[in-house]
Design goal:
With 461 residues, the protein is α/β, with parallel strands linked by helices. The protein folds into three domains: 97 residues, 3-Layer(aba) Sandwich (Rossmann fold), CATH 3.40.50.720; 192 residues, UDP-N-acetylmuramoyl-L-alanine:D-glutamate ligase, CATH 3.40.1190.10; 144 residues, Alpha-Beta Complex (Protein-Tyrosine Phosphatase, Chain A), CATH 3.90.190. It is 33% helix and 21% strand. The chain has 15 helices and 21 strands. The strands form four sheets. Strands 8-7-9-6-10-11 form a six-stranded mixed beta sheet, with helices on both faces. A six-stranded mixed beta sheet has the order 16-17-21-18-19-20, sandwiched between helices. Strands 3-2-1-4-5 form a five-stranded parallel beta sheet, with helices on both faces. Helix 12 packs parallel to helix 13. It is globular.
Length: 461
């Protein structure tokens, strides 16, 4: 990619190709919020079709176009592309003809990060939730932070926004640092946070190399000492956190308890209560409170803030209860996340029925054994796992694996596992399995229609 842009002051009229993506829309809104004149296009924008992202971006004053090149003109001084945008896209060709610099999303985020006191949240799982909790804590503490996240905060969505970005007056910026595309190595944050290291998009040794660079680029570095691989990268034990009884760390969570849809715990003996489920959310809150403390926020202030934390979109989003069955929708999509999501919902009811839609043939093949092991490990005798066919986003893929292969492997381990190829048949197939006291948990990511799917399931339930 050509790039003569060295600072966020080097452009005024950026154009985003693929602006509806969660990572792209967040940066677009942030730049609009600091006074840039932003516009963008997306392949999901088609004439006469309602698109919620488009409506919300336009409400922020960001004009949106179809992906036909009409949005780029001689006033455009930067074109931003996500990793998924190919050279053959009409708009990339037009930008090249007009000699407009082209920059990747991650490079642009690195430039923005350099312009603020940045906290970069890294790790394989929990980045969006921890970023959101940290943003809420700092906002509650009067620090007026900014955020560029990967998921919508319910508190910001209520303002009619997409919810994954906000510009504050303060000096702090919270960002999600993504390891899946390697972009995390471009940031030089004031505080780098490492939540965990699990096999997801890359093998463990690759991840450790990437996270080591992240550590070396961070002024202060904070790790989760409950996670053996993350603990190896500790910079200062007093800045680290942990939730194991025998662990040495500056911040320790204890006394975890879950009652229905609420959790409670203590951090350094300060009591915390949250309207969330799962031990992993205690871990996310512990990470957020630890980093907030390094930024000067007292633990009691963090506890006050998190008591009112409303969560982020599609992260254990509770739709409600019908005939004794709770419906919960979650973004879990790798083996560790799916297992944690299932475990988080088990205390709510004696029976849990989980449904999962894997995404991508390559990733599903890569993680097949891990999915089988992790899901089989956490299912209780009365619990069930259901899957529908792998979500395919287009492009070149060898379709030599099916979600049915995973289901067959799990069934071979003696678990109750069912395959329903077309998810639209799910409710019909699952209805006889529902009881008067159960949880139906929907899991999946990357497929923009999953949110509507949850709504349809709720209506049919």
């Amino acid at each position: 990619m050509s790039n003569s842009i060295n600072s966020i002051n080097d452009f005024e009229r950026p154009f985003f190709i693929g602006i509806a993506g969660s990572g792209m829309s967040a940066i677009a809104q942030y730049l609009q919020g600091i006074g840039k004149s932003v516009r963008g296009s997306d392949r999901y924008f088609t004439p006469g079709t309602y698109n919620e992202s488009r409506t919300r971006l336009e409400a922020e004053g960001i004009p949106c176009y179809e992906q036909d090149g009409s949005g780029i003109d001689d006033q455009t001084d930067l074109v931003v592309v996500s990793a998924a945008v190919e050279e053959t896209v009409v708009e990339v060709i037009k930008a090249r003809q007009l000699n407009i610099p082209i920059i990747r999303r991650s490079e642009l985020l690195a430039l923005i990060a350099r312009s603020k006191k940045t906290i970069a949240v890294g790790g394989t799982s929990g980045k969006s939730t921890t970023s959101a909790m940290l943003f809420d804590i700092m906002q509650h503490a009067g620090l007026s932070p900014s955020i560029i996240g990967g998921a919508g905060l319910v508190s910001i969505i209520r303002e009619g926004k997409i919810g994954n970005a906000k510009v504050g007056e303060g000096e702090w910026l919270v960002i999600e640092a993504d390891e899946s595309d390697g972009s995390i190595v471009q940031y030089e944050p004031e505080i780098g946070l490492l939540l965990n290291v699990d096999k997801d998009h890359k093998e463990i040794d690759q991840l450790m190399d990437i996270f080591t660079t992240f550590k070396n680029n961070s002024n202060r570095f904070v790790v989760n000492r409950s996670h053996p691989l993350a603990a190896k990268l500790s910079q200062d034990v007093d800045h680290d956190f942990c939730h194991h009884a025998d662990c040495a760390a500056g911040f320790i969570a204890r006394d975890f308890h879950q009652e229905g849809l609420q959790i409670s715990f203590t951090i350094n003996h300060t009591p915390f209560t949250m309207k969330l489920v799962g031990r992993h959310n205690m871990e996310n809150a512990l990470a957020a409170a630890t980093v907030a403390a390094l930024a000067g926020v007292d633990l009691t202030v963090s506890a006050e803030s998190l008591e009112h934390y409303e969560g982020i979109y599609r992260r254990h989003q509770v739709w409600g209860q019908k005939d004794g069955c709770w419906l919960i929708d979650d973004y879990a999509h790798n083996p560790a996340k799916c297992a944690a999501s299932i475990e988080a919902c088990q205390p709510i009811a004696p029976k849990l029925i989980a449904w999962f839609q894997p995404h991508g043939y390559g990733p599903t093949r890569f993680l097949r054994n891990d999915f089988v092991e992790e899901i089989s490990r956490v299912l209780r005798p009365g619990d069930e796992i259901w899957m529908s066919e792998i979500f395919y986003a287009g492009g070149t893929a060898t379709k030599d694996i099916s979600a049915k292969d995973l289901i067959d492997d799990i069934a071979a381990k003696g678990r109750s596992a069912f395959f329903v190829e077309d998810r639209n048949q799910l409710i019909t197939a699952i209805r006889p399995h529902l009881t008067e006291n159960c949880v139906l948990l929907l899991m999946g990511a990357r497929d923009p229609s999953l949110e509507n799917f949850a709504r349809e399931v709720w209506q049919e339930l």
